[in-house]
Amino acid sequence: MAYLSVPRRDPVDNGEAVHLALEEAGISYSVGDSTDLIGLTNEPPPVLLPDDGSGPTSGTLRILRNNCMKIQLCGHGSENFHRIHATAELTFLCFNTALYEWREEDTEGLSEQEQRRMRGDWGRDWVDSVLPHHLDQFQNNLPPPAPPNYPWLHGDELSYADLLLFQCIDETKHLFPKAMNQARRSGRYGRIFRVYDSVKQRSRISSYLNSQRRRDNTAGIYCYHEEMDLESTAWSVMNGG
Fold this sequence. Notes:
The protein is mainly alpha-helical. The chain has 8 helices and 2 strands. It has helices spanning 16-25, 59-67, 77-103, 112-140, 160-175, 177-186, 190-200, 203-209; strands at residues 2-5, 29-32. It has a two-stranded parallel ribbon. 35% of the residues are buried.
């Protein structure tokens, strides 16, 4: 039994990618609530992972990096390990950190109408400019697929970088479904969506996604608001708009 304690309502980092890794590895685990992101251990929490300041600031990245060898999701060899982690950090930067920094503007004291207007302005800026930029940045920095055309980001095996990309794309699809459908139809991000589909089809992941254990996106930075669900002008022409 593994023990994982994460904040259920952390607005930035809910640890869901760690759940995916444990599910894929077939490891039983217990989830608890805490004010800090606690590491994956063989002892009941709280046990903090070592952090010497040189590692990633994200608790999810820290847990995945420090435990990926235990759960066999880090590829073959130290060189591949570092490449996988670099891709994981890029994923978090493009689809989590950037979104948090963009949405952290304080709306306290604003009326509901003013909040809706602000969210609409946020959504328009994100789907027209920020989201296309980060999708392009990520796609353009990916290594070529391993022969004979494996779907994974690095080599011929699934790694935690694939799981993290799936989770970030899934949450972004929840927040901006119209724009993400456009992005998919544009054909510009085939590598990203191939990883997404391949992870989603894995038997243990599929079972988890359809279970009550899967966390929803009703709070935090991926919370859906209708006024933010906009089509992007970036892909409207090539999608026939």
